[in-house]
Design a protein that fits this description.
The chain has 103 residues and is an alpha+beta fold. It has one domain. The protein has three helices and three strands. A three-stranded antiparallel sheet has the order 1-2-3. α1 crosses α3 and α2 runs antiparallel to α3. The longest helix has 18 residues.
Length: 103
């Protein structure tokens, strides 16, 4: 069985975005494939070893896997839970919204 999966290039461009979510500051680093598609995200901010840090790590791992399997950021934004104002209800949702809004 062959997975529909694209491996990481050995080198790629990246960009770091800073944002606040529910009172915490984060730095989201986005890695791009040579064709400009998002290929990897990492999140820094929560105190290392905390439950929130592990949730952030798991969130990035899930988003990375979906992106590498050609699920678009647009599709991901349709799946997240939103506040009445349109913001994200969770950190994984905020990561996805940050990706959708990044240039």
């Amino acid at each position: 069985m062959q997975d529909d999966f694209e491996s990481y290039p050995s080198r790629w461009q990246n960009r770091t975005l800073e944002f606040a979510f529910q009172g915490f500051r984060y730095q989201l680093t986005v890695g791009f494939y040579p064709d400009g598609r998002i290929g990897e995200v990492t999140l820094a901010g929560p105190r290392s070893g905390s439950a929130l840090a592990y949730i952030a790590l798991d969130s990035c791992a899930l988003v990375n896997e979906l992106l590498q399997r050609y699920v678009s950021v647009e599709t991901l934004t349709e799946l997240i839970q939103r506040t009445p104002e349109g913001g994200a209800e969770s950190i994984i949702g905020e990561i996805i919204l940050q990706l959708a809004q990044s240039p």
